[in-house]
Design brief:
ATP binds at residues 8, 167-168, 209-215. Catalyzes the transfer of a phosphate group to glutamate to form L-glutamate 5-phosphate. Pathway: Amino-acid biosynthesis; L-proline biosynthesis; L-glutamate 5-semialdehyde from L-glutamate: step 1/2. This protein has helices at residues 11-15, 23-38, 50-57, 67-91, 103-107, 109-124, 147-157, 194-199, 211-224, 239-245, 259-267, 280-287, 330-336, 344-348; strands at 4-9, 42-47, 96-101, 128-133, 162-167, 172-173, 185-186, 188-189, 228-233, 251-253, 275-278, 298-302, 310-314, 320-326, 357-364. It is built from 14 helices and 15 strands. It is α/β, with parallel strands linked by helices and 365 residues long. The strands form three sheets. Strands 3-4-2-1-5-9-10-8 form an eight-stranded mixed sheet, with helices on both faces. It folds into two domains: 4-259, 3-Layer(aba) Sandwich (Carbamate kinase); 264-364, PUA domain (Archaeosine Trna-guanine Transglycosylase, Chain: A, domain 4), CATH 2.30.130. Strand 13 and strand 14 form a beta hairpin. It is globular, with a radius of gyration of 22 Å. 39% of the residues lie in helices and 20% in strands. It binds adenosine-5'-diphosphate and ligand VHF.
Amino acid sequence: MTKTIVIKLGTSTLTHGTKHLSRPHMLDIVKQIAELHQQGHRLILVTSGAVAAGRDYLGHRELPATLASKQLLAAVGQSQLIQVWESLFSIYNIKIGQMLLTRADIENKDHFLNARDTLAALLEQQIIPIINENDAVATAEFRIGDNDNLSALVAILAQAEQLILLTDQTALFDSDPRTNPNAKPISVVEKITPDIRQIAGGSVTGLGTGGMSTKITAADIATRSGVETVIASGETPNVILSLVKGETLGTRFLVQADRIEGRKQWLFGAPPAGTITIDQGAEDALLIQHKSLLPAGIIHIEGQFARGEVVKILNQAGKPLALGISRYNSEALVLIKGKKSNEIEQLLGYEFGAVALHRNEMIIY
Ligand SMILES: Nc1ncnc2c1ncn2[C@@H]1O[C@H](COP(=O)(O)OP(=O)(O)O)[C@@H](O)[C@H]1O
Ligand SMILES: N[C@@H](CCC(=O)OP(=O)(O)O)C(=O)O
């Protein structure tokens, strides 16, 4: 069975603990990804390293200790970083696509759908998405701040089966192995308890952001949404291939929720912004055939809502059937209700796909 896998590479792995990107180490990762890509798996790379690459490119020049300097380094370094990935993937004739995201692109449901559609479109075309935070513009308010958390959100976005966090340690240890030589690796975390959070410290190398602490938060977010998460070393030979095969390596965090249901809980934070009344055919499609809602089955729209907002779906008798995320805003739905999906573009001048509400973004009562 093929899987969707998000692989996060920390600065420590990409630089191999030095001050510049390590092409040999990056090539080793690319080689493994190419093999899995060939097998039909869908792979997404979340890559750190822009700031480190920027520093190196500018010859480690002195800069004022400001946010703008960090953003400057990210702006300079991101283009270096993506060039290296592109040249390495081209060895295997694999095309890549760059996505730079901020918190708003994931938390705002409208943007979330856009980002998700782009990811899906890239994967469908066998293009490997290469993702980083848009550090050059993300101000404190809009930053996720570390790529561990970003990769967990990307895993939810992509409905991935597995999230692999590659770092400079072979596992999560019971204390930081840099300060405690007797620290012991933990192979499985069944549940993230306060004790687990307690043993995960920060980053001491000055290269990484967040250390183990942000990886635990990321594992928590991902496993609650049904995404198995593993922390392992990017240095271990064939680490990605072994993990995808299910071999025991690093620290494995067991899933805490069914994948689809967990993801839905994450999606449905807000109260419904409007209601959609559907006909009998659409009701059967939703309840019996477990299908998405097409505009053709919509009779009436109440309330004003944006694309990405939560709406309640009612049958003709006014009985609530489901909650769902609308792929179109209320004005657009008024124009396309009762119409065939292939007429959407002509009616609106744009389209976000054939369905009004997708099955995977719906909770049936
Ligand atoms: N309990 C722990 N087990 C393993 N590593 C830990 C622990 N607590 C803190 N760390 C630190 O976390 C670091 C990895 O995180 P970080 O430096 O942010 O790397 P990355 O760039 O891969 O995200 C390790 O080098 C280690 O010093
Ligand atoms: N977005 C930043 C990296 C942020 C980050 O989380 O770094 P790391 O802890 O090395 O994975 C960059 O590209 O430099």
